[in-house]
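Lab notebook, bench 4. Continuing the backlog of folding jobs that were queued last week. Each job is logged with the same field layout so the records can be merged later without manual cleanup. Today's entry covers FXSXX-COOH protein, a 58-residue chain. Filled in by technician R.K.

JOB TYPE: sequence-to-structure
TARGET: FXSXX-COOH protein
LENGTH: 58
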Amino acid sequence: MSVESAESMPDEPFADVLALSLTELRTIRHPVLREVLDDLRERAAQPGEMLWGYGSAF
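JOB STATUS: finished
OUTPUT FIELD FOLLOWS
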């Protein structure tokens, strides 16, 4: 982002994303937030490691 484009942005407060539901969060059009949510969706779709037996391995 250049200095010129940052100066032309309106002085609006940032949305409190902690107060939003997942459905509302999905509707926010922000490139970084969209990338993070896409990455989280991909991670959630992959099978995770089974950590419930973690303590008995030692």
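OBSERVATION: The radius of gyration is 19 Å.
SIGNED: R.K.
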